[in-house]
Write a structure and sequence with these properties.
single chain; alpha/beta; TIM Barrel; eight-stranded parallel barrel; five-stranded antiparallel β-sheet; 19 helices; about 45% helix; globular; binds zinc ion
Length: about 475
């Protein structure tokens, strides 16, 4: 017997007609989602689950997602070029419709799939899973403006291959392991490493006593950067090998794509000491000399960009520093500056907006995971309790791979918090960080992750509202300059 459509919840925005075919996203009473297709295109999809009304329903597999994106090309991740962008990392894979809800009213490109291989491994997801979730989410929301997909923090050739094959179109090279922590080296050691660089003479020739004038038409700032011998030696030792790696990865990508139909970012954000303006200039000059085309650079900025909480550092100093970094970017091709761990940095968004305007890329991720946890805190206190307790237990181990300052002693047992304050306790810095870094243990765990996913599927519209409200606070501050014009 053929079931009727009325047995399902219909995501009305998703409806698309194509020739004689009609497409919809549905949810059954067990909160499982299906793709509904009627008409000739229903032959293109795999594993039909049931006949419904005039068509068939299909499970949301990766294969079916890619097939859908072949029919509707706007569902395929795209190269965004140098348009300002906001990265919505989604560790769970259910957040995209909420993310899109927050960005729709802004003229900013969304990067919907954004995850590092390290993170995917932690939560047992493949690059295909990550891309497919963004396709399903864009379909649910009928988002046709085009979005990016960022294979973040790539370190190996193998990871580049895997993510390119899965449909990612932005590649963030992380040559952090090649960056020397020169603050830990003696002058002799630094000199020895410099002399070991094959082209050290050429580098001296190229930069010694040379002045580079960098300026911003936007802010009317002008700076002259002159390299003395020590500047060249220190910049080269710190970043020469990192630049070499970035060059290599770029040409690997060019080969994979048979051209440069992809976005490329070089990130050194996860390294020990801030990138000085001269070092930034050194990096981009070397990249440009080797004909590497890139859309964004993520320097290690001054101050602390800790996960899930506001910026820690001298705002005034960051502002002066950012003006020089921005002038360099404007003078050498007008590329974007990229801010990793960019969520919840409310005190610096006005600076980014004022100084960079349309040349920023801000990446967020764990903050969306916290909004998902807020759904459990609001609707399923017993699931929230399991997440909270397990996160406290796993925190000492999980924190080792992050730069965060939370102290477990300051995080209360859940029994000390009233149940009606569960959602609100997620605004406390210490609790945010403890939950933020322990997501791996929650999302990989069989039973608890299953219950958590079910909760999010049941309360998906609340989940989307939490996400869009929280991320709107980010975008609203980043885009204030534009609206002020
Ligand atoms: Zn990063």
């Amino acid at each position: 017997m053929t079931a009727s459509l009325s047995r399902f919840y219909i995501y009305e925005k998703s409806e698309i007609s194509f020739g004689t075919s009609r497409f919809l996203l549905l949810k059954n009473s067990d909160n499982e989602k299906y793709l509904y297709v009627e008409g000739e295109k229903s032959d293109s999809f795999n594993d039909p689950a049931a006949k419904v009304a005039e068509g068939c329903i299909f499970p949301l597999t990766n294969e079916n997602a890619y097939q859908l994106a072949r029919i509707f090309p706007w569902l395929k991740p795209q190269k965004l070029g140098r348009k300002k962008a906001f990265g919505f990392g989604d560790r769970i894979g259910l957040a995209t419709p909420g993310h899109l809800k927050s960005i729709e009213k802004y003229d900013v490109k969304p990067v919907l799939a954004q995850q590092s291989i390290r993170e995917m491994d932690r939560v047992n997801r493949s690059p295909q899973d990550v891309v497919a979730s963004s396709i399903w989410g864009a379909f649910e929301r009928n988002y046709t403006e085009g979005f990016g997909a960022d294979a973040d923090h790539l370190k190996t050739e193998e990871d580049v291959k895997k993510s390119a094959a899965a449909g990612f179109r932005m590649f963030t090279c992380d040559p952090g392991a090649e960056v020397y922590n020169i603050s830990k080296l003696s002058e002799d050691e630094i000199l020895k490493i410099f002399n070991g660089i094959e082209c050290s003479d050429i580098l001296l020739d190229k930069y010694l006593d040379r002045s580079f004038l960098v300026k911003s038409d936007r802010t009317d700032d002008e700076f002259e950067l002159t390299f003395n011998r020590e500047d060249i030696i220190r910049s080269s030792v710190k970043y020469f090998y990192a630049v070499e790696k970035a060059i290599k990865m770029y040409f690997q990508l060019k080969k994979e794509f048979n051209g440069n139909n992809f976005d490329y970012e070089i990130s050194v954000d996860e390294t020990a000491s801030p990138t000085t303006p001269k070092e930034h200039l050194f990096i981009v000059r070397e990249l440009i000399d080797k004909e590497v085309e890139f859309e964004s650079i993520a320097p290690r900025f001054r101050g602390d960009f800790e996960k899930g909480i506001d910026y820690k550092g001298e705002i005034g100093e960051l502002k002066e520093n950012l003006k020089i970094h921005s002038a360099i970017a404007e003078s050498f091709g007008n590329y974007k500056l990229s801010f990793h761990s960019g969520s919840d940095k409310f005190s610096i968004y006005p600076l980014i907006s004022e100084i960079l305007a349309d040349r920023y890329h801000v990446k967020t991720s764990g903050t969306s995971y916290l909004e998902a946890v807020r759904v459990a805190a609001s609707k399923k206190p017993e699931i929230f309790k399991q997440i909270y307790d397990l996160s406290r237990i796993n925190f000492p181990e999980a924190r080792k791979s992050y730069n965060i300052s939370a102290q477990l002693e300051k995080v209360p047992e859940l029994s000390e918090i009233d149940a009606e304050d569960y959602p609100g306790c997620l605004d406390r810095d210490e609790i945010r960080q403890v939950l933020h870094v322990t997501y791996g243990s929650i999302l990989e765990g069989d039973e608890i992750s299953k219950a958590f996913y079910q909760c999010l599927q049941e309360y998906d519209s609340l989940h989307y509202n939490f996400l869009s409200e929280h991320l709107d606070k980010h975008l609203n501050l980043l885009e204030q300059q534009e609206r002020g014009k």
